[in-house]
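Following up on my earlier thread - several people asked me to post the actual chain instead of describing it. Fair enough. Here it is, all 427 residues.
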Amino acid sequence: MPSEVKVPALGESVAEATIGEWLKKPGDAVKQDEPIASLETDKVAIEVPSPVNGVMGDQIAAVGDTVAVGAVIARIEDATSAAGNDPIKEREAAPVAPASDSAAAKDAEAPEAAKPLDAQPAASVRSGQPTEMPALSPAVRRLVLEHGIDPARVKGTGKDGRLTREDVLEAAKQQGDAPANEPAQTAKPIAQSSDRPEERVKMTRLRQTIARRLKEAQDTAALLTTFNDVDMTAVIAARTRYKDLFEKKHNVRLGFMGFFTKAACLALKDIPNVNARIDGDEIVYHNYVDVSVAVSAPNGLVVPVIRNAEALSFAGIEKAIGEFGAKAKAGTLTIDDMAGGTFTISNGGVFGSLMSTPIINPPQSAVLGLHRIEDRAVVVDGQVVVRPMMYLALSYDHRLVDGREAVTFLKTIKEAIEDPTRMLIDL
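Reply from S.P.:
Thanks for posting it. Predicted structure:
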């Protein structure tokens, strides 16, 4: 009897998802707990595992369909009952061809795929027709076709060996003989005859949610941004002096985010409104700090949450950030990883940003923006000197946070970064 595959629980307040892609085709053998489909929710992509061993049966929902929690999206056939369609068994049961015709029959029936891999023409790789197309996300599939990469020849570094965007780009870099401007064979331009083609691609559910929430922040909150700059000399010196010992002891690198997270926790303790939120006509104050850290994922920016950051050590914060970064790259972040959050830190400096006005992540009331470090001439004790400087930006909801509080908050972070001892003695 076929086993039903249902949409699993997607997390608190998440009632439906969209079929992102099918990882198995009808007739494919599947193992228990092996991913067979990818669902896109408002926050993350979730893989749906097979409940049993067997053969992929009917796919009840199509890619792009919206499905509710508990809905049946596919069936898994029992392996023994599906054996009647096994091509191997069919060949065993088929009558043997006459001896005189055996050579001709063998030549006629030998499939092209049975030839050695090296014997296949190189053009087959560039034509967008790989020897065996593994399960790919839409973004990775597009890169595969654009660069003429055979995914069967590339070792994936994602979950369960799946290909990531970085894997394809690295393979394209190594494949120097492929034309750089070769167009994707499967692209569907709007105007085929025009020299300015366009292509329409439906927004993913995650991108739609990002767009909706950012617009909601602009429409609801009274957004304002205040700026300051910070001399990074002391932090750079401390990191240079202790990074090797730190990594040896804690098995994680000492980065700048640990310093800024600890400094933010110190400032949030002094200015609690920045760590609060508005709920109707009430203000909800949080006696803990759950820091949302903005990280880049293949489908957009996501914000996993470091729980109780105020109680964590530098090593605990750096380990949490490292784990979230690896999970975001592999596409394995869960809804629980991103639920909640009372304050956000976004580091645009890793992409080279000099200054920005970040948008808050509702229902939070503030976000701290970090930027690139660059040497600038500043005046210290009446002397013009060159120091490594960074611009800081705090965007906040002016309905809850006053200008004085925002400026004081940013000034507290500046003082803690320029004199890290303050973080140790709670000043």
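The longest helix spans residues 233-250. That should answer part of your original question.
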